[in-house]
Amino acid sequence: GLNDYTLTQKEQDALDGFNSVGWATFEIRDLFDVLSTKKKFNAADLTFNGRYRYIARGEGRNGIRGYINEDEKYLNKGNTISFGQDTATMFYQSESYFTGDKIKIFEPKISTPFNKDIAQIFITSIKKAFSSFSWGSSSYNVSVLNSTKIKLPIKADGSPDYEYMNLVAPAMQKVVIKNLVDYLDHRIDKTKIAIGHWR
Fold first, then answer.
1. At residue 137, does pLDDT exceed 60?
2. How far is 199 from 194, CA to CA, in rounded Å?
3. Contact assessment for residue 127 and residue 88, using Cβ atoms and an 8 Å cutoff
4. 188 vs 186: CA distance, rounded Å
């Protein structure tokens, strides 16, 4: 399924102009409301054969531990970022979800429609800001989260350039996919040659 890696002209232009893009610093509180989960569900008490995502602090599968059925009034909004407080794991969640312990919800306050591409830019920038924090650090409390400064590409007026983010994020993903496809094609060609020598 790794076949969508041809850059559009706009995506190519976005990559070509990356080094000339202006950047500015913003506090997380300017961009997100950092919220507590509506209710914490203990994984040991759950049956995982339901409809809604259960988000935990693990690194894999977009934080999804499984799918559960619980009271829908405790669902957290989709189109947000889930944040594991003691692991600093962050994932874009497109759908409504339940969570376990020590999860915060980053609900966007931005003026443009929030989506996966913009979320990936935010997540990358936030993780970079957190790189000096220690694992399990109390530095991930809400007060510090709100005041953490992150860098974003900006327009001429100094506001975040969401149009650029929407172009450069998928462009970078396509470049990664293309590099992976080229690598795999090279491996396949080498394997075919090796098999040919054995016959």
1. no
2. 9
3. yes
4. 5
Q: pTM for the full model? A: 0.81
Angle between helices 116-130 and 162-198 (to 10 degrees): 90
User: Cβ neighbours of residue 125 under 8 Å, at least 6 residues apart?
Assistant: 150, 151, 152
CA-based nearest residue to 27, from 127, 126, 131: 126
Please tell me whether residue 164 adopts helix, strand or coil conformation.
Answer: helix
Q: 94 burial class (0-12, 13-18, 19+ CB within 10 angstroms)? A: middle
pLDDT in tens, 12-50: 877 777 777 899 999 999 999 999 999 999 999 999 999
DSSP bridge partners of 91: 82
Give φ, ψ of 14 to 5 degrees.
-65, -40
